Amino acid sequence: MDWFPGATAVSALRVYGWPAADGRRGGSPHLHTASAEGYVVTAGTGALETLSGDGYAEHPLAPGTVLWFTPGTVHRLVTDGDLELLVVMQNAGLPEAGDAVLTFPPEVLADPAAYAAAASLAPPAEIEAGPQSGADLDLAARRRRDLALEGYLRLREEVVARGPAALAPLYQAAAALVRERAPGWAGLWRERALAQAERTGEQLRELAAGRAGHLAASAVHHAVPTPPPRRHGMCGHLQTWDFTGGSGAPRN
After folding, report:
1. Cα torsion angle, 8, 13, 152, 45, sign
2. Local structure of residue 191 (DSSP, 8 states)
3. DSSP 128
4. What whole-number distance in Å separates Cα of residue 15 and Cα of residue 44?
5. Nearest partner of 158 among 172, 148, 170, judged by Cα
6. What whole-number distance in Å separates Cα of residue 172 and Cα of residue 170?
7. How many contiguous H segments (helices) and E segments (strands) does the chain have?
8. How many whole angstroms separate alpha carbon 90 and alpha carbon 71?
9. Confidence of residue 248 (pLDDT cuts 50, 70, 90)
10. Measuring CA to CA, which residue among 13, 74, 80, 14 is closest to residue 47?
11. By three-state DSSP, how is residue 91 classified?
12. CA distances from 126 to 65, 122, 130, 245 (A)
């Protein structure tokens, strides 16, 4: 079974345009605990705000911009208009299995049950039971974004004032939240990222011996776009592709 090259995941993202408490429009600030993430901007303009070992920074985004960041980088996408980009995630399967942690206020991060409830897009209490409409999901995603932004804005102030050391409590809370999931991630990593790297190693050994048998297995694979509407992701509306129909697994 093959995966997208390098065992990465790819999705198309249209950043949320809802205004936030600080007057900017964009998605939910969060970090990834074990996966790097990359962007290729395809349309619109905006910025990526980051909190990392380099402190606070803002990175302009415009068509043609390519950037990426490593695990632990708190990131917030903001849009000046119709910002759209391709997202490339390391370790396909890990982000989908809960590798991301949202920057909720410390009291929420410290309570796994409260965190799970806040991170869920389950219907708010005032929405009647039944299938969720697009408006229901928008409301739930926006509330999640606003709570993550509340914690993020506090954290940003601390990082600006004290430097990257201010991120330590968030990192510890994130590790505690994902601790029980991490053993399962090891299996996904071995099945996908490690398996592809080992396959490349075997191919190099074959080539070094003058053998080309693996080239006869050459093939072209296709993924099927998931049907509309786009999914509600942390940063915006996601277009994903289904790899299960050919030789892979769903992304994001």
Report:
1. positive
2. I
3. P
4. 10
5. 170
6. 5
7. 6, 13
8. 10
9. very low
10. 80
11. coil
12. 41, 11, 12, 38
At 95 the three-state DSSP class reads helix
Whole-angstrom distance, CA of residue 124 vs CA of residue 155: 26
- State how far the Cα of 201 lies from the Cα of 183, in Å rounded to an integer: 25
* pLDDT per residue as tens digits for the range 102-112: 999 999 999 99
Would you say 83 and 44 are in contact if contact means Cβ atoms under 8 Å apart?
yes
Assign 131 a pLDDT band (cuts: 50, 70, 90): very low
- Residues 6 or more apart whose Cβ sits within 8 Å of residue 127: 136, 139
Q: Which residues pair with 30 in a beta bridge?
A: 75, 102
User: Which tokens is 231 given?
Assistant: 């999914």
Q: Note the pLDDT tens digit of each residue in 30-43.
A: 999 999 999 999 99
Max distance between CA atoms of the chain, in angstroms, equals 68
Distance CA 200, CA 52 (A): 32
Task: Let me know: does 34 contact 56? Beta carbons within 8 Å.
Answer: no
- Give the CA distances from residue 2 to residues 36, 186, 195, 199, 220, in Å, rounded to whole numbers and listed in that order: 21, 18, 9, 10, 11
For residues 54-77, average pLDDT:
98
Tokens at 195, concatenated: 């398996």
Is the bond leading into 229 cis (omega within 30 degrees of zero)? yes
Q: What does the angle CA 60 – CA 61 – CA 67 come to, to the nearest 5 degrees?
A: 95
Residues 6+ apart with CB under 8 A from 78: 15, 24, 25, 26, 27, 46, 47, 48, 49
Beta strands at 46-52 and 66-69: parallel, antiparallel or unpaired: unpaired
Burial letters for 159-188: b for 16+ Cβ neighbours within 10 Å, e otherwise? beeeeeebbeebeebbeebbeeeeeebeeb
